Amino acid sequence: MKKYTVHLLIPLLVFFSYCNAQSPKKEKVKMNKEVRKLVNLGKDAIIQQALTALDKKASLTTFSTTSVQTNGKEVYVVFSNPVLYLPQNSIFKYTMGVHLMTGAQFSNTIANPEDFRPTTAIPIYQETATATEHIAFVVEAIPNLNASDLTNFEGSLIIREKEDHYAVRVVSEIQESWYKIKKDTGTMYDEGHAHLEPQPFSEEDPETFKEIAFNTKKE
């Protein structure tokens, strides 16, 4: 039964984690006593508590983005990597999270090719020097995208390496784009774009998870 519950959490977490990643504004949320007590520990303490509960190999150096979210009744900590380079025949955990009230955990994986099946334990994604070089090459080839844009990147950039090209997917708040980029020349082709519809829920919905606005002093 516990396994079934965790599986139900996965799509929910992916959804609110993605939505909040696109909307970095932190908002005040009416919290119950249990949540407020937890929040008063401070962001650093909450993140450390979440890391302790997760995989031993998980650390702040492993993930580029950390989000602490609540709807006033529950608190989730979500660790993610929005910029990914995937070598051929590889698979990684790129998002991990924990529900601090129940201890329920989740992780999401991404593979190249998409149907790749691992024969060993799935590692946590961590950007290497080689990955950084491939990412820089791809970013240089995409118009209106600069290396500086990847700092606090709002959205996702997924680069799958192929034999003679990179298959690239970029998602922002309002648009999804895909490209192929030749590995030898950096020439971009098979370009496509799709407009994304606004979030299907109201920002005023009391059940919406929002990034916690931590104060420097306890309330």
What would a concise description of this structure say?
By secondary structure, the chain is an alpha+beta fold. Helices cover 24% and strands 30% of the residues.
Order of helices and strands: HHHEEEEEHEEEEE
Low-confidence runs of at least 5 consecutive residues: 1-24
The strand line-up of the biggest sheet is 5-4-2-1-10
**Mean pLDDT across all residues, rounded?**
83
Outline, from the CA principal axes? globular
Distance between the termini: 38 Å
Overall strand count: 10
Helix content range of the residues, please? 10-25%
Number of helical segments with 4 or more residues: 4
Q: State which percent range the strand residues make up.
A: 25-35%
Largest sheet: 5 strands, antiparallel
Class computed from helices, strands and strand pairing = alpha+beta
The Rg value, from CA coordinates, equals 19 Å
Description of the structure:
The protein is an alpha+beta fold and 219 residues long. The chain is 24% helix and 30% strand. Strand 1 (65-70) and strand 2 (75-80) form a beta hairpin. The protein starts with a helix and ends in an 8-residue tail after the last strand.
Please give a handful of descriptors for the protein shown.
alpha+beta; 219 residues; 24% helix; 4 helices; globular; single chain; five-stranded mixed beta sheet; disordered N terminus; 30% strand
